[in-house]
Amino acid sequence: MTLPLVVKDLRKRYQGPDGPVDAVAGLSLSVARGEVYGLLGPNGAGKTTTLRCLATLTRPDSGTVHIQGVDRIADPLGARSRIAYVPAEAGLPERLTPREVVRLFASIQGVPSPRERAETCLDLLSALPFADTPCGDLSTGMKRRVVLARALVHEPPLLLLDEPTDGLDVPGRRDVLAVIRAQRDAGKGVVLSSHIMGEVEKVVDRVGIVARGQLVAEGTVREVLDIAGAKDLDDAFVALVGSGAP
Amino acid sequence: MILRALLHLTLATCRRYAREERVLRSVVWPIFLTPVTLVATLAFLTAARSPDPTVAVPDVTTPLAADLAEAGFIPVAVPHPRDAIDQGQTVIATDGEVVWTSAHSDITLRLESAVRTHRGSGWVLLFQRTPPDEQVLRTMGGLTLRPLAMLFVLYALVFSLGAISRDRDAEILDVELSLPLPGWGPVLARWVAAVLLLVPAHGLSVGLMQVIMPASDPVQFLLRGTGAIATAAAVGIAIAGGAGRRQGFSGPFAVGSILVAGAFTAGPLIPWARDVLPVFNVFTDAPGLSSLLIGLASGPVGAWLHTWREGRVR
């Protein structure tokens, strides 16, 4: 069976003020169906650049990315139709309503009956009560629900979530994690980047810890704890990447 | 499929702009700015060209004063009329033999004519100002439409550049670029929306100007203006490759302003550019059709350049 995501030797170098910077330096990973993969790392470790490469927003210098068997370089449109990218910011137009946004994405994705599908997704995320409120007037938690509804509208086999619980209160975080679990149970592959270890532990099946653009440890949470000789992910994280900046 | 998706995205972008108060406000002011400025200028010139017809005379009870009053002047008595001029009390004065004036306008000629008539001069100056003919007025109307187009061209540059950088900062653009569309699609949608918003605004502004001071062949002004607006918006999206989060707004804006201002300036000096190219011909009387067609074609080129500059080869 084709995996939702297979990444091999991904590399991306930027020109920094002090010379070239390897944002991603030979990163390889794969995500199975029904698996949540946590991409963890300190700020500047390369998590967002990796997600942007997977989302076809940034062209890698080398390496391969296959999204459900589709080569991201050779067939970017095919790859994009199989993903949903949720950035750290909501990315919602302020003056459009959630209903309009989700319908728009359903239409662009070529979903049959986009109106009905939009209603279903908004209902799934409990976003119907504020579906006609301009997105600019919504709270952070409401926006996150809309963003997830927008991401799920075409039922992509792979979800790419960048800091999906950033800025949310406790109930909001619980709701988002519940949605991620539901997607995993529905057989989707999920990649989420985060630096909040506690929430990651609750939802991921495997984690990859990134430092300086490379995976320094990968496995189940238990396996990573064993590698680091730590009691929890916080300690493991510090042991593997250090407490300072990358 | 892709065309339909682009259509949906373009309509949604138009809807967004139409609902944003700051967008509407920023479109409304240029519509009225030039007409209001023109009306204010005309009012000022009218006032400046018609100074107070007060004339200083030695005595207001004399036949001279009566004749001047009959000719439309307001005689005021001063002991020494010439001193009234020197001291700035009036701009015209006469004692019935000499006319003193500090005005360089029609009123001096009118006073000379009135004094000659009063004195029964051997020859009389029959002064009559002929209003400018319609052709002159239409030429002046055309002169006012040119800066109007320039205003909208500069605004199109700012608008499209700002639309891209703002949406990039809010990650709205990133989300759209992760959709199964060509990379230039979301950028082109913004260009189309900007043109659809600004061209009617320019048309409305030209219409208002036509009411105040009609120009000859306003259709050509509309065509040249539309082409120039579309081109400037395309320049805006093309140079916005890095505008926003990483590079800020001012650098690309400076580049765009130099490009557009250079085209304004160079246009009248380069015959082939003046005759054909949008923006270059804003200050000329060149036919507008080629400008319009090139302007409409500039959008896809600008979107492609944006994608190329952004470093995304999809």
Outline the structure in words.
- The complex is a heterodimer of chains A (about 250) and B (about 325).
- Chain A is an alpha/beta fold.
- Chain A folds into 2 domains: about 1-80 and about 155-245, P-loop containing nucleotide triphosphate hydrolases (Rossmann fold), CATH 3.40.50.300; about 90-155, no CATH class.
- Chain A contains 9 helices and 10 strands.
- A 6-stranded mixed beta sheet of chain A has the order 6-7-8-3-9-10, with helices on both faces.
- In chain A, a hairpin with a 2-residue loop joins β1 and β2 (about 20-30).
- In chain A, α3 packs across α4 (about 115-125) and α8 (about 220-230) crosses α9 (about 235-240).
- Chain B has helices at about 1-20, 20-50, 65-70, 80-85, 105-120, 135-170, 170-175, 185-210, 220-240, 250-265, 270-275, 290-310; strands spanning about 55, 75, 90-95, 100.
- Chain B has about 325 residues and is mainly alpha-helical.
- The interface between A and B is medium-sized, with 34 and 26 residues.
Descriptive tags:
heterodimer; A: 246 residues; alpha/beta; Rossmann fold; 2 domains; six-stranded mixed β-sheet; four-stranded antiparallel β-sheet; 9 helices; 36% helix; B: 314 residues; mainly alpha; 12 helices
